C-alpha cells in the first residue's frame, strides 16, 4: 500500500474486486444479529456473493469449512450463540468481526475480546465500538479513550477520526486490519491508513447498514489473492457500499426506507465506469509532530509527513513547516 497508489488505482482495484465477487459468487457464512440478517443477505446477493445465515452449533463445524469467508456479528448476542461464533471463527476461513455495541455489557465485551483472540482478518465497527474495544483490549497500554459515558447502543457517538489512533494501536496489537466506519471510513493495519469517503449520512438512519458493510467486507476478503490484501478488501468494500448509498440517494430516495431499496438496487447495477470514476479512496497522510529545531532533527519516520516545529522555551511554537516524504 504505497503512496503511488492513486485514487485511480483504488478505483480500478475496487472494480477488480467487485468483478471477482460477481464472477466467483463466494459463499459467505454469517453468524449475524437478527436485525441485520435481511439487509446483510440482500447486500451480499446484490453484490454477487452468496449469503448463508447459519448459527446452530450442530451445523457450524460441518458447514463453515465449506465457505469462502465468514462474518461474525455480536449485535443480538446470546449465550447460546457464542460457541457458534467461536466455532465459525475457528474454522480456518478468512473472517471479519463486527463488535456491535461492544460496550453494552461486560458479557458482550468479554465475548468480543475472546473473538478478537481468534484472529479476525478484519474488524469493522463504528467509532464508538472501536474506541470501546481498543480501550479494553489495550488496557495495559493505558489507552486514553473512554466511550462508556456517551454510550448509545449500536449507534456511534463519535466521528471515525476520533478512533483513528486507537484503531492503529488495536491493529498493531491484534494483527487484524481495523476499519472504522463513518463519514470517512478509515482502514488501517497499524502502520498505513487509507480513508474511503464514499457514502451519505442517511445511511446511518437505516438499521444494520454497518452490519451489511461488514458482510460485504467478508465477500471481498474471499476474493483477494493474498491474506495481506485484507486492507484493500475492507477499503474497497466500504467504498463500493458507500457509492451504492450515494447513487441510491441520487435515485430519488426520500428517507431511510426508500434509500434501503435504492441502495441495494444501486449495488446490483454498479458498472465499471461508475466504480472507477466515483470510488474515493486515498492514503491518509497524517502528521507526526516533532518538537525540535529543524536543523538538528533527522526524521525517524519517512513513511508519513513530518511536521517540524520551532519551539523556544517560554515562547511556545514559533513556526512550523511540513515535509512530505
Ligand atoms: N456521516 C456519514 N456520511 C456518509 N456515510 C456514512 C456516514 N456515517 C456512516 N456512513 C456510512 O454508513 C455505513 C454504516 O456505517 P455506520 O458507522 O453507521 O455503522 P454502524 O454504526 O455499525 O451501523 P449499524 O450498527 O446500524 O449496522 C457505512 O458504509 C458508512 O460509510
Ligand atoms: C439495533 C440493533 N440492536 C442490536 S443489533 C442492531 C442492528 C444494528 O447494529
Ligand atoms: Mg454496527
Provide an overview of this structure.
The chain is an alpha/beta fold and 325 residues long. The protein has two domains: 7-283, UDP-N-acetylmuramoyl-L-alanine:D-glutamate ligase, CATH 3.40.1190.20; 287-323, no CATH class. Helix content is 40%, strand content 18%. The chain has eleven helices and twelve strands. It has helices at 7-24, 37-47, 60-63, 82-89, 106-116, 127-137, 164-174, 209-223, 230-250, 256-269, 272-278; strands at residues 27-31, 50-53, 69-73, 95-98, 122-126, 177-181, 185-188, 193-196, 281-283, 287-291, 305-312, 316-323. The strands form two sheets. It has a nine-stranded mixed sheet, sandwiched between helices. It has a three-stranded mixed sheet with strand order 10-11-12, with no helix packed on it. The longest helix is centred in the last third of the chain and has 21 residues, at 230-250. The two termini are 15 Å apart. Residues 98, 100, 126, 154, 210-211 line the site of magnesium ion (MG).
Q: How would you name the oligomeric state of the polypeptide chains in this document?
A: single chain
Distance between the termini: 15 Å
Give the helix/strand class: alpha/beta
Order of helices and strands: HEHEHEHEHEHHEEEHHHHEEEE
Could you tell me the mean pLDDT?
A: 88
Assign the CATH class of the largest domain. Alpha Beta
Tertiary shape: globular
Percent strand: 15-25%
CATH topology of the largest domain: UDP-N-acetylmuramoyl-L-alanine:D-glutamate ligase
Keywords: ATP-binding, Kinase, Magnesium, Metal-binding, Nucleotide-binding, Thiamine biosynthesis, Transferase
Pathway: Cofactor biosynthesis; thiamine diphosphate biosynthesis; 4-methyl-5-(2-phosphoethyl)-thiazole from 5-(2-hydroxyethyl)-4-methylthiazole: step 1/1
Function: Thiazole kinase involved in thiamine salvage pathway.
Family: Belongs to the Thz kinase family.
